């Protein structure tokens, strides 16, 4: 878990290859800062109801990730009510959810569920 103070903070998690075996997400980020989560390859190996990645941020750019989850849920995004986000060009095994709801247009068509 990465926590940054509120304000003009920025967090970037880019170009990582992460694999885990356990009962929690491979990647879990919680911050009020803006976040760029891109070009990562993340795998969760154990059958669980957890996503492979869970990102909570003030605003989010999620692009070009490969997220392989063992269950139906690959990527959970949590944003404040007015939180801006883009979710583009990700390949997932499992759903992407934003604030508990499935990803909707136009973002759904711009990502691939394999």
What does this structure look like?
The chain is mostly beta strands. The protein has one domain. 0% of the residues lie in helices and 53% in strands. The chain has strands at 10-14, 17-20, 27-30, 34-38, 41-44, 53-56, 59-63, 66-78, 85-88, 91-98, 101-102, 112-113. The strands form 2 sheets. Strands 2, 3, 5, 6, 8, 10, 11 and 12 form an 8-stranded mixed beta sheet that branches. A 4-stranded parallel beta sheet has the order 1-4-7-9, with no helix packed on it. It is globular and about 35 Å long. The termini are far apart. The relative contact order is 0.18.
Q: Which percent band covers the strand fraction?
A: over 45%
**Radius of gyration computed on alpha carbons:** 13 Å
Task: Supply the helix-strand structural class.
Answer: mainly beta
| Uncertain parts | none
Estimated helix fraction: under 10%
Q: Total number of β-strand segments?
A: 12
| Largest sheet features | 8 strands, mixed
Mean pLDDT: 91
Our measurement of the CA-to-CA distance between the termini, rounded to an integer number of angstroms, reads 27 Å
Total number of distinct structural domains: 1
Order of helices and strands: EEEEEEEEEEEE
Oligomer state of the chains in this structure: single chain
Shape: globular
Tally of contiguous helical segments: 0
């Amino acid at each position: 878990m990465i926590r940054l103070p509120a304000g003009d903070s920025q967090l970037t998690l880019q170009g990582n290859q992460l694999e885990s075996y356990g009962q929690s997400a491979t990647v879990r980020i919680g911050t009020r800062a803006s976040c760029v989560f891109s070009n990562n390859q993340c795998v969760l190996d154990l059958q669980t109801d957890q996503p492979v990645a869970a990102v909570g941020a003030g605003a989010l750019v999620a692009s070009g990730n490969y997220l392989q989850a063992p269950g139906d849920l690959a990527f959970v995004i949590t944003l404040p009510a007015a939180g801006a986000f883009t979710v583009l060009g990700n390949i997932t095994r499992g759903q992407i959810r934003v604030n508990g709801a499935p990803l909707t247009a136009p973002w759904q068509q711009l990502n691939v569920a394999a």
